[in-house]
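check this one:
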Amino acid sequence: MGLLDILLGRTKPVAPDLDRLFALPSAAVTLEAATGFTPTGHGAVCFATVEGAAFEQTHREVRALLDADTDRTGPPVDLVRDDHGYSWLVSRRSPGELSLLVNDLHAVNSSMEVNGFGPQLLCSLAGFRAADPDDGRRLALVYLYKRGTFYPFAPLPGAGQRRDNALELQVRGALAGDLGIEQDLGRWFPVWGAPGL
């Protein structure tokens, strides 16, 4: 950073650290103990929609890489476009395979990054649900690619586009020692209808 950057208040962007995703399995143990939420086995990587042959080749490579896992049932990743024009590569595992899901998310992010699509990467998320099936509450731990931090997102069930802010703050407090939590609450973007949640 130069003197002009310091004077103008510009900060150097944080370099993405995809290895932080590997902290999710141990954070899930803390999360379950503190809140009763357990992994769903679903996760997704969100990026600005990309068209063209280079992206199609990358998508094929990701599918081939994840398809090499012979224990998987169903497709390795699905490509889904949301109502806002963003694309999601969605991975589904059994609820007890969070570490394998994290490997999937890391592989998707790494493949996108290596093939030059790093600037389009936005976030990754792992889904959780309340242990009581009648509860109906869901939660996502969202990794912000460009910030290298996590935040919880908890939509209120049956309440339209409203968040369970109390739960999000409870999760922040519980996981502060396990994950690099995003301190700027203004960056806790809602991911309404996100595949994988």
